[in-house]
Amino acid sequence: MVTEEEKRLEKRIRERFIKAFATYGLLADGDHVLVGLSGGKDSLCLLEMLGRRAKIHHPRFTVEAIHVRMAEVDYHTSTAYLERFCQELDVPLHIVTTNFPTPNSSLLTPNSSHSKPFCFLCSWQRRKQMFNLAQELGCNKIALGHHQDDLLTTALMNLFFQSRFETMPACLQMDKMPLQIIRPLCLVQEADIIRYAELRGYEKQVKLCPYEDDTQRTAMRQLLDSVITANPEARHSLWSALVREGKV
User: Fold this and answer.
1) Contact 39/205 with Cβ under 8 angstroms?
2) Closest by alpha carbon to 71, among 133, 122, 34?
3) DSSP code of 105?
4) In Å, what is the CA distance from 189 to each residue of 155, 204, 236?
5) Is the pTM value of this prediction over 0.85?
6) In this predicted model, what pLDDT tens digit does every residue of 146-198 receive, in sequence order?
7) Could you please report the per-residue DSSP string of 161-199?
8) How far, in Å, CA of 39 to CA of 65, rounded?
9) Pairing mode, if any, of strands 93-98 and 61-70?
10) Helices (H) and strands (E) in the chain, counts
């Protein structure tokens, strides 16, 4: 039975989801959208909102989902659960397994000037699989589950580590391929998604990434949480600054 709290929360998330479309022009008639489905709460919420919206037929668009497994990382979601979740929404699901570069690659050599962090390589390989499948399927957009807290955290990372004040945009046109990256949850707060996932009974991932708490992003997220705890208006101030500078 759906509780009043779930109804209110679903309404708030849906309204911010729709506002993002209207504000940033994320959807149009004829769009073919591929959703990056990790199996975490954010991507499940994104797929649910997009899947429901696709049935309204305004605008008319189609949705498919991709779940990418990384062979070397003990981090995964129940495939059976994702298949059931997608079936309930009438969304086709594609499951792809990929690998890191070979151990001899300079990308993985610690002493090489060209070596990259494992998290970068994992993300890069997952994106590569999404881009490849999107083009195979004829999709013109890839939807990712980044919420407002993710965008604010990225802004702090760029400010403190890159001397730049910018974040992940709500809509990004790729330069080398006919694809747009869209982030329909960009106006939704993570706290709402966490509670909605609990009320909806989303299954948690079987195993979380062993490296997910050992990053600069984790430190910046803790900083953001501390600032917002001390001053709840800081969230709105930081977001307004990004909007004013045209960075979202």
Assistant:
1) yes
2) 122
3) S
4) 15, 19, 11
5) yes
6) 999 999 999 999 999 999 999 999 999 999 899 999 999 999 999 999 999 99
7) HHS------SEEE-SSSS-EEE-TTTTS-HHHHHHHHHH
8) 11
9) parallel
10) 8, 6
